[in-house]
Write a structure and sequence with these properties.
The protein is α/β, with parallel strands linked by helices. It folds into two domains: about 1-385 and about 420-485, Trimethylamine methyltransferase-like (TIM Barrel, Alpha-Beta Barrel); about 390-420, no CATH class. The chain is about 45% helix and about 10% strand. A hairpin with an 8-residue loop joins strand 4 (about 80) and strand 5. The longest helix has 22 residues, at about 250-270.
């Protein structure tokens, strides 16, 4: 959705001053030019050296001018096209989209509630649920398949999601080879490589390691995406006090440097490649030694990094709708609400990990469905307040006069549904009607909604020739028999 900041004073906020945002960017430039990034891929080192970087072994020092040129080269706006045109993602300032995350090893079984390994059928169920939820804008798997033929779980994951949603997908892979397999399927959906370049239909996710350590596989995937003009998310996961400084300004400077290293490489290979910066930025809970997914610091740090991205004119990959709770309970609702609202109000473009529980270890459809309603509330806040002659309604106030009411006014009938948010899961009835309706809890209504979607929702099917092409890609991937992890 577009955040209503152009036509009104707006609903966005900042956690940093403009001066402090620029100081963080300047610190990131110093890190890149004076500290450098370990770059474990000879071809990447060569591209960076040819572009003007200093390479000492595997450490690459990138001068400020190279970074600034890369920032200027990357597009501020681009579109990721969905099978259903109205579901396309228009990535640009003041648009915010929400979706789940990938790679949780466990899944809360939607029928039994049991925590178990994530399996093939779960990828289809997640995609179908995302397809049905109005406020989930893009699709990821909420898990990592453990029972795929030939251990090609990343390739199967993309195929199952593509067959079960008309919304755009954010994909990932273990290796450059499976990245290419996924791209072959996306090209089949697009109608050819040239058609894909004109109308890209997915985003690829790759991730460096903190601190300042770009692995060979991540860089190979980044380079493949740049060569094929695939929109790319390249974001780290620095943990304050563990893989990043304990000071939050230091975390942000390091995170920015880690993303910008990838940005420079991508723009050298193919100037204008759509590129999204950001990261999962949170703290290590030193009591339990976990990356805290429900911590307020995650929202604070994400909002700060969003400001840095916005100053640079780069799209931002943020985090929200996640929790450290092990089940979908009051803690989960509180933590998800804060992160969803903070991410939206900060102006982040793509907010992922909606539906994560258990500190990112367990995906949950119940969490996803609950967050869909929270996102709807936040989107209403983000839409702001319209101030026009009709909205001010002075003539209507005059017509009703002191002591009257507005219930029967034509203006009320015409405008009420546009102005007001109507929940689907939250209950606003009086207590007598609530009791008469079964006295259900929010949790019970969420469980019912999940089961209803899985029982009844049927996404629009892919063309038969595309599905047949998918089968060929999967068969060749399984025949190779290797898994790179």
């Amino acid at each position: 959705m577009r955040v209503n900041v152009q036509a009104s004073a707006g609903t966005q906020f900042g956690v940093l001053s403009r001066q402090d945002t620029e100081r963080i960017y300047l610190a990131a430039l110093r890190i890149l030019s004076e500290v450098g990034v370990l770059t474990h891929e000879p071809d990447a080192c060569q591209v960076l050296a040819d572009g003007g970087a200093t390479v000492v072994g595997e450490r690459v020092l990138i001068p400020e001018g190279m970074v600034r040129r890369a920032v200027a080269s990357a597009p501020e706006r681009f579109t990721v096209h969905a099978r259903a045109a109205e579901k396309s993602l228009h990535i640009e300032p003041n648009r915010v989209y929400y979706g789940p995350g990938p790679t949780c090893p466990y899944f809360l079984d939607p029928q039994s509630g049991e925590r178990r390994p994530y399996v093939l059928d779960d990828a289809a169920a997640v995609a179908r649920t995302c397809d049905a939820l109005e406020n989930i804008d893009f699709v990821q798997s909420l898990g990592s398949i453990t029972d795929a033929p030939g251990e090609q779980m990343d390739v199967y994951e993309f195929a199952l999601m593509a067959e079960n949603t008309v919304k755009p997908i954010v994909a990932w892979s273990f290796s450059e080879q499976t990245c290419a397999d996924i791209h072959r399927m996306a090209v089949l959906m697009a109608g050819g490589e040239d058609a894909f370049v004109q109308r890209p239909n997915y985003i690829f996710y790759a991730e460096p390691m903190s601190p300042l350590n770009a692995g060979g596989e991540a860089l190979q995937k980044l380079m493949y995406c740049a060569r094929h003009r695939i929109p790319l998310v390249y974001t780290p996961c620095p943990i304050a006090g563990a893989t990043a400084p304990a000071t939050f300004a230091g975390v942000l400077a390091q995170a920015a440097a880690e993303s910008l290293h990838g940005l420079v490489l991508a723009q050298l290979i193919s100037p204008g490649t759509p590129f999204i910066v950001g990261g999962v930025v949170s703290v290590m809970d030193m009591r339990d030694m976990v990356l805290a997914y429900g911590a307020p610091e995650l929202s604070l740090l994400s909002a700060g990094l969003t400001q840095v991205a916005r100053v640079l004119g780069l799209p931002m990959w943020s985090t929200g709708g996640c929790t450290d709770a092990k089940v979908v309970d009051q803690q989960a609702a509180a933590e998800a609400s804060i992160s969803i609202a903070m991410a939206g109000l900060s102006g982040a473009n793509l907010v992922h990990d909606v539906g994560y529980t258990d500190s990112g270890m367990t995906g949950s459809l119940q969490m996803l469905v609950m967050c869909d309603e929270i996102i709807a509330m936040v989107k209403r806040v983000l839409s702001g307040i319209e101030v026009t002659a009709e909205a001010l309604a002075v003539d209507v106030i005059d017509a009703v006069g002191p002591g009257g009411n507005f219930i029967g006014e034509e203006h009320t009938v015409r405008r009420y549904r546009k102005e007001c948010f109507f929940p689907e899961l939250a209950d606003r009835s009086n207590i007598e009607n609530w009791r008469a309706g079964g006295a259900t809890t929010m949790g019970e209504r969420i469980e019912q909604r999940v089961k209803e979607i899985l029982a009844t929702h049927e996404p629009a099917p892919l063309p038969e020739e595309v599905v047949a092409g998918f089968r060929d890609v999967l068969a060749s991937a399984v025949a190779r028999g290797e898994r790179v992890s």
